[in-house]
Amino acid sequence: MSRNTDIFLTALAPAIWGSTYLVTTEALPAGYPVTLAALRALPAGLLLLAITRCLPPRAWLGRVFLLGSLNFAVFWVLLLVAAYRLPGGIAATLGSLQAMMVLGMARGWLGTPLRTGAVLAAATGVVGVALLVAGPETRLDPVGIAAGLAGAASMAAGTVLSRKWQPPVPALGFTAWQLTAGGLILLPLALLLEPPLPPLSPANLAGMAWLGLVGAAASYALWFRGVARLEPAAVSMLGMMSPVTAVILGWIWLGQALTPLQAIGAVIILASVWAGQRASRPHPPRHLLRAARPDPA
Fold first, then answer.
1. Quick check: 257 and 135 in contact, CB under 8 A?
2. Distance CA 233, CA 235 (A)
3. Nearest to 269 by CA among 99, 147, 29
4. Less Cβ crowding at N or C end of the chain, within 10 Å?
5. Across 200-223, average pLDDT
6. CA neighbours within 13 Å on the CB side: how many for 255?
7. Residue 13 has pLDDT above 50, yes or no
8. Measuring CA to CA, how many Å separate 16 from each of 116, 171, 239, 280?
9. Cα 168 to the chain's mean position, in Å?
10. CA-CA distances (angstroms) from residue 87 to 35, 69, 138, 179?
11. Whole-prediction pTM value?
Protein backbone atom coordinates (compact mmCIF):
# COMPACT_ATOMS: atom_id res chain seq x y z
CA MET A 1 0.00 0.00 0.00
CA SER A 2 1.38 3.43 -0.95
CA ARG A 3 2.45 6.07 1.55
CA ASN A 4 -0.24 8.43 0.23
CA THR A 5 -2.90 5.85 1.02
CA ASP A 6 -1.48 5.44 4.52
CA ILE A 7 -1.60 9.22 5.00
CA PHE A 8 -5.19 9.44 3.77
CA LEU A 9 -6.44 6.60 5.99
CA THR A 10 -4.62 7.99 9.03
CA ALA A 11 -5.99 11.50 8.37
CA LEU A 12 -9.53 10.12 8.54
CA ALA A 13 -9.08 9.52 12.28
CA PRO A 14 -8.52 13.16 13.38
CA ALA A 15 -11.10 14.31 10.85
CA ILE A 16 -13.62 12.09 12.66
CA TRP A 17 -12.38 13.28 16.06
CA GLY A 18 -13.29 16.81 15.05
CA SER A 19 -16.93 15.77 15.47
CA THR A 20 -16.31 14.98 19.17
CA TYR A 21 -16.86 18.60 20.17
CA LEU A 22 -20.17 18.91 18.35
CA VAL A 23 -21.48 15.58 19.64
CA THR A 24 -20.29 16.27 23.21
CA THR A 25 -21.92 19.67 23.50
CA GLU A 26 -25.10 18.91 21.53
CA ALA A 27 -25.92 15.25 22.20
CA LEU A 28 -24.43 14.27 25.58
CA PRO A 29 -25.45 15.25 29.13
CA ALA A 30 -23.12 17.85 30.62
CA GLY A 31 -21.08 17.32 33.77
CA TYR A 32 -20.06 13.67 33.40
CA PRO A 33 -16.65 13.74 31.67
CA VAL A 34 -15.20 10.64 33.39
CA THR A 35 -18.36 8.54 33.04
CA LEU A 36 -18.80 9.40 29.37
CA ALA A 37 -15.13 8.70 28.64
CA ALA A 38 -15.46 5.29 30.33
CA LEU A 39 -18.61 4.47 28.36
CA ARG A 40 -16.85 5.50 25.18
CA ALA A 41 -13.74 3.37 25.79
CA LEU A 42 -14.75 0.17 27.57
CA PRO A 43 -17.65 -1.09 25.38
CA ALA A 44 -15.68 -0.31 22.22
CA GLY A 45 -12.60 -2.08 23.60
CA LEU A 46 -14.56 -5.17 24.65
CA LEU A 47 -16.26 -5.30 21.25
CA LEU A 48 -12.90 -5.21 19.47
CA LEU A 49 -11.52 -7.86 21.84
CA ALA A 50 -14.45 -10.10 20.93
CA ILE A 51 -13.75 -9.53 17.24
CA THR A 52 -9.97 -10.00 17.37
CA ARG A 53 -9.97 -12.69 20.11
CA CYS A 54 -6.50 -11.56 21.10
CA LEU A 55 -5.45 -10.79 24.67
CA PRO A 56 -2.20 -8.97 25.50
CA PRO A 57 0.69 -11.09 26.78
CA ARG A 58 1.50 -10.68 30.47
CA ALA A 59 4.76 -8.90 29.59
CA TRP A 60 2.75 -6.24 27.73
CA LEU A 61 0.22 -5.43 30.46
CA GLY A 62 2.21 -2.54 31.96
CA ARG A 63 2.74 -0.93 28.55
CA VAL A 64 -0.89 -1.46 27.54
CA PHE A 65 -2.24 0.20 30.69
CA LEU A 66 0.19 3.11 30.37
CA LEU A 67 -0.77 3.64 26.72
CA GLY A 68 -4.46 3.19 27.54
CA SER A 69 -4.08 5.87 30.17
CA LEU A 70 -2.23 8.35 27.94
CA ASN A 71 -4.23 7.80 24.74
CA PHE A 72 -7.67 7.37 26.30
CA ALA A 73 -8.21 7.69 30.06
CA VAL A 74 -6.30 10.92 30.71
CA PHE A 75 -6.69 12.33 27.21
CA TRP A 76 -10.44 11.84 26.87
CA VAL A 77 -11.31 13.22 30.31
CA LEU A 78 -9.27 16.34 29.63
CA LEU A 79 -10.73 16.54 26.13
CA LEU A 80 -14.28 16.50 27.48
CA VAL A 81 -13.42 19.10 30.13
CA ALA A 82 -12.00 21.35 27.39
CA ALA A 83 -15.04 20.72 25.18
CA TYR A 84 -17.45 21.67 27.98
CA ARG A 85 -15.60 24.87 28.92
CA LEU A 86 -14.41 26.16 25.51
CA PRO A 87 -15.88 26.68 22.04
CA GLY A 88 -15.33 23.62 19.87
CA GLY A 89 -12.82 25.28 17.57
CA ILE A 90 -10.61 26.43 20.42
CA ALA A 91 -10.72 23.08 22.20
CA ALA A 92 -9.83 21.25 19.00
CA THR A 93 -7.00 23.58 18.07
CA LEU A 94 -5.40 23.27 21.51
CA GLY A 95 -5.25 19.55 20.80
CA SER A 96 -3.49 20.24 17.52
CA LEU A 97 -0.53 21.68 19.43
CA GLN A 98 0.53 18.11 20.04
CA ALA A 99 2.41 18.29 16.72
CA MET A 100 5.07 20.48 18.33
CA MET A 101 5.14 18.26 21.40
CA VAL A 102 5.58 15.09 19.35
CA LEU A 103 8.64 16.53 17.60
CA GLY A 104 10.39 17.04 20.93
CA MET A 105 9.29 13.71 22.42
CA ALA A 106 10.26 11.77 19.31
CA ARG A 107 13.70 13.39 19.41
CA GLY A 108 14.21 12.42 23.04
CA TRP A 109 12.58 8.97 23.12
CA LEU A 110 13.12 7.67 19.58
CA GLY A 111 16.22 9.57 18.51
CA THR A 112 14.30 10.99 15.54
CA PRO A 113 16.20 13.93 14.04
CA LEU A 114 14.53 17.33 14.12
CA ARG A 115 14.07 18.32 10.49
CA THR A 116 13.82 22.01 9.77
CA GLY A 117 10.94 21.52 7.37
CA ALA A 118 8.90 19.56 9.94
CA VAL A 119 9.48 22.20 12.62
CA LEU A 120 8.50 25.00 10.24
CA ALA A 121 5.39 23.11 9.14
CA ALA A 122 4.30 22.58 12.75
CA ALA A 123 4.97 26.23 13.63
CA THR A 124 3.02 27.36 10.56
CA GLY A 125 0.16 25.13 11.64
CA VAL A 126 0.11 26.86 15.01
CA VAL A 127 -0.21 30.20 13.19
CA GLY A 128 -3.12 28.77 11.24
CA VAL A 129 -4.66 27.61 14.50
CA ALA A 130 -4.39 31.10 15.96
CA LEU A 131 -6.20 32.53 12.95
CA LEU A 132 -8.79 29.77 12.95
CA VAL A 133 -9.90 30.45 16.51
CA ALA A 134 -9.95 34.22 16.14
CA GLY A 135 -13.42 35.64 16.51
CA PRO A 136 -15.68 37.74 18.74
CA GLU A 137 -17.16 34.61 20.35
CA THR A 138 -13.78 33.46 21.65
CA ARG A 139 -13.63 33.04 25.42
CA LEU A 140 -10.47 31.90 27.17
CA ASP A 141 -11.48 29.84 30.18
CA PRO A 142 -8.28 29.04 32.16
CA VAL A 143 -9.41 25.59 33.28
CA GLY A 144 -10.49 24.67 29.77
CA ILE A 145 -7.20 25.87 28.28
CA ALA A 146 -5.17 23.94 30.89
CA ALA A 147 -7.20 20.81 30.16
CA GLY A 148 -6.71 21.22 26.41
CA LEU A 149 -2.94 21.64 26.69
CA ALA A 150 -2.53 18.77 29.14
CA GLY A 151 -4.65 16.57 26.91
CA ALA A 152 -2.45 17.40 23.93
CA ALA A 153 0.65 16.44 25.93
CA SER A 154 -0.96 13.14 26.97
CA MET A 155 -1.90 12.26 23.39
CA ALA A 156 1.56 13.26 22.12
CA ALA A 157 3.25 10.98 24.65
CA GLY A 158 0.89 8.14 23.78
CA THR A 159 1.56 8.56 20.05
CA VAL A 160 5.34 8.48 20.43
CA LEU A 161 5.32 5.55 22.86
CA SER A 162 2.93 3.63 20.59
CA ARG A 163 5.54 4.01 17.88
CA LYS A 164 8.37 3.02 20.24
CA TRP A 165 6.60 -0.10 21.50
CA GLN A 166 5.48 -1.90 18.36
CA PRO A 167 2.98 -4.60 19.45
CA PRO A 168 3.03 -8.21 18.23
CA VAL A 169 -0.52 -7.85 16.86
CA PRO A 170 -2.27 -5.90 14.09
CA ALA A 171 -3.55 -2.37 14.70
CA LEU A 172 -7.10 -3.55 15.48
CA GLY A 173 -5.86 -5.78 18.31
CA PHE A 174 -3.59 -3.02 19.65
CA THR A 175 -6.58 -0.65 19.64
CA ALA A 176 -8.68 -3.22 21.52
CA TRP A 177 -6.03 -3.61 24.22
CA GLN A 178 -5.67 0.13 24.80
CA LEU A 179 -9.38 0.94 24.71
CA THR A 180 -10.14 -1.81 27.21
CA ALA A 181 -7.29 -0.75 29.50
CA GLY A 182 -8.37 2.88 29.34
CA GLY A 183 -11.97 1.94 30.09
CA LEU A 184 -10.94 -0.22 33.07
CA ILE A 185 -8.98 2.72 34.47
CA LEU A 186 -11.87 5.12 34.00
CA LEU A 187 -14.70 2.93 35.30
CA PRO A 188 -13.85 3.00 39.05
CA LEU A 189 -13.00 6.70 38.82
CA ALA A 190 -16.42 7.39 37.30
CA LEU A 191 -18.16 5.46 40.07
CA LEU A 192 -16.20 7.32 42.76
CA LEU A 193 -16.16 10.84 41.37
CA GLU A 194 -19.44 11.36 39.55
CA PRO A 195 -23.14 10.79 40.27
CA PRO A 196 -25.14 8.30 38.17
CA LEU A 197 -26.12 9.40 34.71
CA PRO A 198 -29.65 10.74 34.26
CA PRO A 199 -32.06 8.81 32.01
CA LEU A 200 -30.60 8.90 28.52
CA SER A 201 -32.57 10.18 25.55
CA PRO A 202 -32.34 8.68 22.05
CA ALA A 203 -30.05 11.59 21.09
CA ASN A 204 -27.77 10.77 24.05
CA LEU A 205 -27.59 7.10 23.03
CA ALA A 206 -26.91 8.00 19.41
CA GLY A 207 -24.12 10.37 20.43
CA MET A 208 -22.52 7.75 22.67
CA ALA A 209 -22.76 5.13 19.91
CA TRP A 210 -21.08 7.49 17.44
CA LEU A 211 -18.24 8.35 19.82
CA GLY A 212 -17.70 4.71 20.80
CA LEU A 213 -18.04 2.84 17.53
CA VAL A 214 -16.83 5.43 15.02
CA GLY A 215 -14.95 7.98 17.13
CA ALA A 216 -13.11 5.31 19.12
CA ALA A 217 -13.04 1.78 17.70
CA ALA A 218 -12.86 2.59 13.98
CA SER A 219 -10.89 5.85 14.07
CA TYR A 220 -8.26 4.69 16.55
CA ALA A 221 -7.66 1.50 14.58
CA LEU A 222 -6.82 3.76 11.62
CA TRP A 223 -4.70 6.00 13.85
CA PHE A 224 -2.57 3.21 15.35
CA ARG A 225 -2.18 1.68 11.91
CA GLY A 226 -0.74 5.00 10.77
CA VAL A 227 1.47 5.30 13.86
CA ALA A 228 3.06 1.96 12.93
CA ARG A 229 3.58 2.89 9.26
CA LEU A 230 4.36 6.62 9.23
CA GLU A 231 6.91 8.83 10.95
CA PRO A 232 5.78 10.37 14.29
CA ALA A 233 6.09 13.92 12.93
CA ALA A 234 3.95 13.03 9.91
CA VAL A 235 1.27 11.41 12.06
CA SER A 236 1.15 14.30 14.54
CA MET A 237 0.67 16.87 11.76
CA LEU A 238 -2.39 14.97 10.59
CA GLY A 239 -3.94 15.70 13.99
CA MET A 240 -4.49 19.27 12.78
CA MET A 241 -7.36 17.97 10.66
CA SER A 242 -9.40 17.81 13.88
CA PRO A 243 -9.82 21.58 14.47
CA VAL A 244 -10.59 22.17 10.81
CA THR A 245 -13.37 19.59 10.97
CA ALA A 246 -14.65 20.98 14.28
CA VAL A 247 -14.90 24.53 12.94
CA ILE A 248 -16.57 23.44 9.69
CA LEU A 249 -19.13 21.35 11.59
CA GLY A 250 -19.79 24.27 13.95
CA TRP A 251 -20.38 26.48 10.92
CA ILE A 252 -22.66 23.99 9.15
CA TRP A 253 -24.65 22.52 12.07
CA LEU A 254 -24.64 25.27 14.69
CA GLY A 255 -24.56 28.35 12.48
CA GLN A 256 -21.34 29.59 14.11
CA ALA A 257 -19.70 32.48 12.32
CA LEU A 258 -16.80 31.72 9.97
CA THR A 259 -14.86 34.87 9.21
CA PRO A 260 -12.49 35.35 6.26
CA LEU A 261 -9.60 35.33 8.74
CA GLN A 262 -10.68 31.94 10.03
CA ALA A 263 -10.97 30.63 6.48
CA ILE A 264 -7.40 31.77 5.83
CA GLY A 265 -6.36 29.98 9.01
CA ALA A 266 -7.96 26.76 7.80
CA VAL A 267 -6.12 27.02 4.47
CA ILE A 268 -2.84 27.61 6.31
CA ILE A 269 -3.45 24.54 8.49
CA LEU A 270 -4.15 22.35 5.47
CA ALA A 271 -1.05 23.67 3.72
CA SER A 272 1.06 23.00 6.83
CA VAL A 273 -0.27 19.44 7.02
CA TRP A 274 0.77 18.89 3.39
CA ALA A 275 4.18 20.46 4.01
CA GLY A 276 4.62 18.35 7.15
CA GLN A 277 4.09 15.16 5.16
CA ARG A 278 6.67 16.27 2.61
CA ALA A 279 9.19 17.24 5.26
CA SER A 280 8.75 13.99 7.20
CA ARG A 281 9.10 11.72 4.19
CA PRO A 282 11.95 9.29 4.93
CA HIS A 283 15.10 9.81 2.88
CA PRO A 284 16.79 6.81 1.28
CA PRO A 285 20.18 5.88 2.77
CA ARG A 286 23.10 7.75 1.32
CA HIS A 287 24.78 4.62 -0.02
CA LEU A 288 21.64 3.93 -2.10
CA LEU A 289 21.70 7.48 -3.43
CA ARG A 290 25.35 7.09 -4.43
CA ALA A 291 24.61 3.76 -6.08
CA ALA A 292 21.76 5.33 -8.07
CA ARG A 293 23.99 8.06 -9.53
CA PRO A 294 25.41 7.24 -12.98
CA ASP A 295 29.17 7.05 -13.20
CA PRO A 296 30.71 10.01 -15.04
CA ALA A 297 31.66 9.23 -18.61
1. yes
2. 6
3. 99
4. C
5. 93
6. 0
7. yes
8. 29, 18, 10, 23
9. 22
10. 21, 25, 7, 27
11. 0.84
The Cα 44–Cα 38 span in angstroms is 10
**Do residues 52 and 173 touch, judged by C-beta distance below 8 A?**
yes
Q: Residue 155 contacts by C-beta under 8 Å, 6 or more apart in sequence?
A: 70, 71, 75, 95, 98, 239
Q: What is the DSSP letter of 55?
A: P
What pLDDT is recorded for position 297? 45
* Mean per-residue pLDDT over the chain, rounded: 86
pLDDT of residue 246: 82
Nearest to 70 by CA among 226, 186, 168: 186
Beta-strand runs (E) in the chain: none
Residues 6+ apart with CB under 8 A from 125: 96, 99, 237, 240, 268, 269, 272, 273, 276
Q: Half-sphere exposure of 101 toward its Cβ, with a 13 Å CA cutoff? A: 20
Under a CB-based contact definition with an 8 Å cutoff, are residues 133 and 39 in contact? no
pLDDT of the residue at 288: 43
